[in-house]
Amino acid sequence: MRYIILFCLLHTAGLSFASDLKPVNLRVEYKDRPFVDERVPRLSWELTAKKHNQFQSAYQVIVASSLKKLKRNEGDLWDSGKQTSQATNQIVYDGVALSSRQRVWWKVKVWDANNRQGKWSEVNHWEMGLLNQSDWHAKWIGYDLNHLAKGGTYHLPPSPYLRKEVRVQKEVRVARLYISSLGLHEFYINGDKVGRDYFGSGWTDYDMRVYYQVYDVTKHLQQGGNTFGAVLSNGWYAGYLGYALFVGSPQVRAFYGDFPLLKAQVEIQYSDGSSDIISTDEQWKASAGALMESDFLQGETYDATKEMAGWDRPRFDDTDWRPAQVMEDNSTRKIQLYPGEPVRVVEELPIKSIRRLDNGKYIVDFGQNFAGIIRARMLGQAHDTLVFRYGEMLHLDGTLVTENLRSARATDTYILKGNPEGEVWSPRFTYHGFQYVEITGLKEAPAADFLVGLALSSDLETAGYFESDNELLNKLYRNIVWTQRANYLDIPTDCPQRDERLAWTGDAQVYIRSAVYNNNIAAFHTKWIQDLNDAQWPNGAFPIYAPMPVNKAGIPAIRSSDTYSPGWSEAGVICTYEIFRAYNDLRMVKRSLPYMVKFMDFLATKANNLGVLPEGIFEEIEPNGGFGDWLSIGKKTSPDLLATLYYFYCAKLMKEMCEAIQEDELTQRYGKTAEIIHSGFLAHYTDAGKFKTDSARYGDGAGYVEGQNGFSGHTQTAYANAIYMLILEEEDLEYAGRLLRQLVEENDDKLTTGFLGFKPLLPALSRTNSSDKAYKLLLSTEYPSLGYEVVNGATSIWERWDSYTKDQGFVHNAAMNSFSHYAFGAINEWIFEYMIGIKPIDRGFRSFTIKPELPPKNIPLKSVKGTYHSIAGRIQAAWRYEDNVRIHELEIPVNTTAYFYIEARSLEDIYINGKVLGLSEWASSVEQVGVQYKLQLGSGKYTFKINQHP
Ligand code: RAM
């Protein structure tokens, strides 16, 4: 009887559709239905299933040249056939070579662990961009208006306006706009802006490459007359960059060219099969217009009285417009499809309060520090002028703090045209980092919706979620997310407000893993890591920021001493590694490999016979030894000791990456290098397990960052890094953990770390059984701590621990004091990997641990919930205390394996989905590891209850 029932059950299961595995979230090159110019794009999907423990055992992808064919399951471009594989990402297209402009449709189906077939996914598509230089018909055009710039400190010419009229005679089937600019562009068809992106085509080393974007403009076109219009701005290409003005550099602007250029072509395919390409060329006409000046750092001025109504529509009289200037192309410059995600408005913020100052100016508070612009709604007479200045903080008297912007003018001006119905305006070629806006020129108190804050950021998918029962922590998390948004803007900038906004490599490398847990940053960093590789110095060192403009002599153009620094340069290895780790991206590793190898070769030239970077070895750079543990407190960690640890870490990461791409010789080479550095480090920088440095070698510290404080090897930063990078054997590791703990205790449970020390600090404490101290640091509200910022009203992460203090106020404002600097937000890594406890074992989270570090009883934190949407699917881990039980709720994606670590007194105290664990079907996969139980889990949702004993 039993057998019959079993047979019937199996039989019905077989008859129902077999597997309930369903591929969802289909992506091409990390994007949903994108335009791509990778000739062999990579595909990915995630899987859903109703049942537990589901795996993919095989997949079939089909790619078709038409939707019809795909629907008939005809993969005329590629039919992978049934591939026995658990892979769901980085599946390399392996079909017929694709051509420029080709649109293709694809879908996927998978087989489950029992080899039962599932249903086809929904259809997805991608479209190829322009793959060959010869696909480009458009010429670079522009209009040099430099002679119209007002003289003085800020050279800000008006924006060129460009236009061209065309007739469309036949029925349009599809139309595309391919557009690139050196500088920034906005493109209009018949008066409508194309797309909702800002700041195209981004910042690159324009001598090497420039990006283009593609837009579907089918609906923009009309039968008969059509007008294409464009407005350009200097942007990163010809505008002000960084602190060049502030530090008095010989060159302060126009680092790549003197005025912005546009290259665009509209390609129309008609219903009758014919086509047309309309390109930028000498027939376009140019003029100045209402946009009087615009610059990232200095802001924008718009004179609405100078508007040329209808300039971007047909039948406009452009007889006094001039022919556009056509510029020669640079033959070494590549033109490629923008690999990142475009900058867009990601959130609109209403005004929180408006106050009138005694001097008649108004201060608007948005209640949130962000990067972006405003949208203003105004009513007034022609030539009334409103001036907007932006700042992150207010002085005690309520006036705007602008000192910390240094030479960034950060001022927008709008001159009204006097429209009786009111006028709405928003800057388009600038952005500011701000919470407050000071407005001059208002005649009366404005309405509450007078301004809206538009937060701009690279438009990245949200990947993380965090919530707890501790409000301080929730606020801290939101501050991290906002600061990432404000600084993941085309490139990963250090800050969005002052005259800097450079993609500092040190900041980027300490923060990148934290960023992974907030957003899908794969495409964003595909773009930036290219910038970084492009900026490698001839000697192999990666620069301190990238893109890095250089002058004709090859010298850093923003400030000549801006070369390289340990802790910054390693971004060239670490950032590629983090993308490899999070997204299983082997292509990134292969592409970065030659650059990374060159960098490792460079470091090797600096090492002594022990394989160590000894004290004083980086004296030739400025500041001496590099930036070291930038913005730390008290004694400086020997920068060379730190550099040695980083050298070791890079060798280890190189070994892992080279192994993954089967570069055997290199794998061995870097394995050896790591071993040598390991023993060299012990011999040179430790004494019976205690870290040391020859501080006499640094003299009186002149030329070093805060060298007057003296140098030491025995610091929180040194141990935290050594533990994090795992340079020590288990025994030494434990000892280093004890020393680290001691240093924290000796300092009243406070940190002394800067940029390089803070990132590994909490992970290192947890790694060596001091999570209690990690929690103390996390929730401290005393200076120096992140909580201190929160209780002082922060809505973002500050650059310095003492950016503002109660007793001293803003002491650093005149020099360097950003209130939106993500570097110290690197604590996010600990929040996700230790507090929530999700950490990958395999690249791309195919397997991972859930090992939450639970706080000691006296810590005011009883409930934590986090999700991370990995490339393998959505992982959730939550824990909370309730009466006498601790509850863990987990969600494991299909096709992954989790190893869950449970603290419990005995097996009998653990319940899984209502059953005693020891008696459940999971009993056989339980293993005891120290004082914890380790349990292997397949996909599905789980609720654990663990009895708590007093
Ligand atoms: C500062 C930047 C950045 C840091 C460098 C060393 O000016 O803001 O955060 O990496 O200097």
TrEMBL record:
<dbReference type="InterPro" id="IPR035398">
    <property type="entry name" value="Bac_rhamnosid_C"/>
</dbReference>
<keyword id="KW-0732">Signal</keyword>
<feature type="signal peptide">
    <location>
        <begin position="1"/>
        <end position="18"/>
    </location>
</feature>
<dbReference type="Pfam" id="PF25788">
    <property type="entry name" value="Ig_Rha78A_N"/>
</dbReference>
<dbReference type="InterPro" id="IPR016007">
    <property type="entry name" value="Alpha_rhamnosid"/>
</dbReference>
<dbReference type="InterPro" id="IPR013737">
    <property type="entry name" value="Bac_rhamnosid_N"/>
</dbReference>
<dbReference type="Pfam" id="PF17390">
    <property type="entry name" value="Bac_rhamnosid_C"/>
</dbReference>
<keyword id="KW-0378">Hydrolase</keyword>
<dbReference type="Pfam" id="PF08531">
    <property type="entry name" value="Bac_rhamnosid_N"/>
</dbReference>
<dbReference type="InterPro" id="IPR008928">
    <property type="entry name" value="6-hairpin_glycosidase_sf"/>
</dbReference>
<feature type="domain" description="Alpha-L-rhamnosidase six-hairpin glycosidase">
    <location>
        <begin position="462"/>
        <end position="834"/>
    </location>
</feature>
<feature type="domain" description="Bacterial alpha-L-rhamnosidase N-terminal">
    <location>
        <begin position="170"/>
        <end position="347"/>
    </location>
</feature>
<dbReference type="Pfam" id="PF05592">
    <property type="entry name" value="Bac_rhamnosid"/>
</dbReference>
<dbReference type="InterPro" id="IPR012341">
    <property type="entry name" value="6hp_glycosidase-like_sf"/>
</dbReference>
<protein>
    <recommendedName>
        <fullName>alpha-L-rhamnosidase</fullName>
        <ecNumber>3.2.1.40</ecNumber>
    </recommendedName>
</protein>
<dbReference type="InterPro" id="IPR008902">
    <property type="entry name" value="Rhamnosid_concanavalin"/>
</dbReference>
<feature type="domain" description="Alpha-L-rhamnosidase concanavalin-like">
    <location>
        <begin position="356"/>
        <end position="454"/>
    </location>
</feature>
<dbReference type="InterPro" id="IPR013783">
    <property type="entry name" value="Ig-like_fold"/>
</dbReference>
<dbReference type="Pfam" id="PF17389">
    <property type="entry name" value="Bac_rhamnosid6H"/>
</dbReference>
<dbReference type="InterPro" id="IPR035396">
    <property type="entry name" value="Bac_rhamnosid6H"/>
</dbReference>
<feature type="domain" description="Alpha-L-rhamnosidase C-terminal">
    <location>
        <begin position="837"/>
        <end position="903"/>
    </location>
</feature>
